[in-house]
Amino acid sequence: MRCSDRGVQKIEVVDERHLRLLLPGGRSESPEQVGDLIVIGSEYAPHGSAAHAVACGHNVRVRLENIVVFAANSFGFFEDECDGSVYYRCRIDRRPAAEDLLKRADARLRSLTADAFHSNEAGNGPALIECTAKFMGDDGVNIHGLIT
Hints:
By secondary structure, the chain is mainly β. The chain contains no helices and twelve strands.
């Protein structure tokens, strides 16, 4: 990645495949170049729901095996107030371009917008066994208690 997210001031639609991003102050030292591919996050999900690929809530000893997630608008795996979950050989990755359901001019840059494995307020935290997470927009693993 050549540059970090520094807050875009304005986005203009040039045509159906091109955007023009204007950064605050028009910094001349910015490393972006014309033609760079970018990832743009989206907080929209149909019907107002967070678009996690797999979500569990208030479960005990859930075991998820051999699940492959190629895309999600938010978390790949999200658990809320679970206890002793096990993720076995679960994988987050971009779908290979040759197998993509939608043929694109350019391969996907990201698998997910946010965390691969996210655990909130677990009694006993999850076990991740032989799992992989690639190309997500945030943490690979995020395990935390109550956020106040």
